[in-house]
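Listing S7. Sequence submitted for prediction.
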Amino acid sequence: MVCGKIIAIGLIAYVLGMSSKKLNRWYKDVLSGYKQARERGDLEKHNLQVIEQGQLVDIAVPILEEENLGVQMAVDEKTINGTCYTVLSNRQSGKIALMAGTLKTKYLSELMSRFDIGKRIKVKSVSRDMANHYDWFVRESFMNAYHVIDKFHVIKNIMDQLQSVRIYYRQQEFAKRRKAAENKEDYDETILENGDSMLQLLARSRGLLFTMPHNWTPQQRHRANILFRLFPKIQRAYYLVNKIRRWYKPPPGKITYQTTKDKKRKYIAKIIKELQNSDIPELKNIAFLLKRNLENILNYFIAKETNALAEAINQKLQRFISSNYGTRNIKFFLFRVKIYFA
């Protein structure tokens, strides 16, 4: 770390004019304290041993720090070396309270039971995604906390459904070309007024569907007009998805939380009804997602809490991996994660 930034050992070695392997070995065995921690047995002291399918499985728990609990927490997941880790972080301090190589509620709850119940009761809110296992984990571990379904997870899910409508039509275009080739027929390629073929139009429209209409460039606006004329279902899906995105904006002026929540509930109910009445399966999926998680989605308006800090931690973990060209020594990697994040 230099000025709080993650710097690759190889880069430091290059500046110092030394072998990167030698510097890395020196850092690991002498400077970092890893060797001493390994000798004391600190590296795996929190690990959980469980029986899975008749076999003894060791669940890595590199971080279990009760002092990092706070009033506002966030739970997310990060995949490292093919293993999904649950990461419970403090949204105020940015420190990790729990990092465990499992997504199973029963094991996560067992680990959290090692924390003082008095501190767990003081947790007031937990932001998370829509996964059911995190729902039960938070209910069992933080009894007084309200759940906030992360705004960005909701938007990501609805945008994925919108893109699925576009991809459906793109796959149809591919199928037409394949069938023409199988039947040894010439395929009559249509070139549209902006110079795109039908496949190019559907491929190049990906970005504009992520963008609100007022932010379109003139070229995107022209392409959108063609796309919506040829595929009205994409247009209908796009504008309904944008209704949800605009719904997240808090009302102007000083309005109490309960008034805001009541207004937002009425408006989202109308949007859900529109989605349910649509003949587009992807929009029905969005309606189901919103209806099932509505109460926890509405809790966003209490304090406009998101998982932004948890996502930032995920990105830093990824930079750790990238700066070390992978995680070949997973124990040393997790040791460094604990030093920096806990």
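Caption to Listing S7: primary sequence and predicted structure tokens for the chain studied. Residues 45 and 61 are 8 Å apart (CA to CA). Strands lie at 48-52, 55-59, 63-64, 72-80, 83-90, 96-100, 125-128, 146-149.
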